[in-house]
Automatic annotation (TrEMBL):
Pfam families: AMIN-like. This is AMIN-like domain-containing protein. InterPro entries: AMIN-like. Residues 72-202 form the AMIN-like domain. Keywords: Signal.
């Protein structure tokens, strides 16, 4: 999703201004633009264009899928976008049932221990895929279950935690800056793989 486009200016503008415009307009896909000149009219215009193109119609009520699949979780990834922060779950197999909802607290699966999360709100993501195969061999074994990815510098995400995989389900806790709107969808991958994607907006 490209949220920024080049802003065309007359050719008689000073070279310094043209360079500043290109610094704002040319942004890699999925990156967060940082204005070249803080407080300039060009930076303000670029920010306004980005905001006006952000998706709308998202909400903060629970989301759940209406289909079932089979597979195993193989990876968890996060990324920053112009309008939202994204978390992606890579699955070996077809898209599976999921439930995403805000909760007062997050607990470890099977044990019920409270899991502290940074941020003003807590988003729980439950996937009907385990992080182990039929022989109980791990298919996803993060180095640090309390910090699945490095989300420092993200506008919305504050922490991503693996709260456990038990009886065919895996639960993930996401610390969010505030109770912000989100969306959930699935994507096909190469071969028999698939992805479950959760986007949480930067603002209402």
């Amino acid at each position: 999703m490209k949220l920024f486009r080049a802003i065309h200016q007359p050719f008689h503008r000073p070279i310094r201004t043209a360079v500043a415009i290109l610094a704002v307009a040319v942004v890699p896909a999925g990156a967060v633009a940082v204005p070249a000149l803080a407080g300039s009219s060009t930076a303000t215009t670029a920010a306004a264009v980005a905001t006006s193109k952000c998706p709308t119609g998202w909400g903060s009520l629970p989301e759940a899928s209406k289909f079932a699949g089979a597979g195993q979780l193989t990876d968890v990834r996060t990324g920053r976008h112009a309008c939202f922060d994204r978390i992606v779950f890579d699955v070996k197999g077809k898209p599976s049932w999921f439930r995403v909802h805000y909760v007062p607290n997050v607990y470890t699966v099977g044990q019920g221990n409270l899991v502290p999360l940074r941020g003003g709100a807590k988003l729980e993501i439950i996937l009907s895929v385990p992080s182990y195969d039929d022989d109980y061999r791990s298919t996803y074994n993060p180095a640090n279950r309390n910090e699945l990815t490095n989300v420092s510098g993200y506008r919305t995400f504050r922490q991503v935690v693996d709260t456990g995989s038990f009886e065919g389900e895996t639960a993930i806790g996401v610390g969010v800056r505030a109770r912000l709107p989100f969306r959930v969808f699935t994507l096909g991958g190469q071969g028999s793989t698939s992805r479950i994607v959760v986007d949480v907006a930067h603002r209402w």
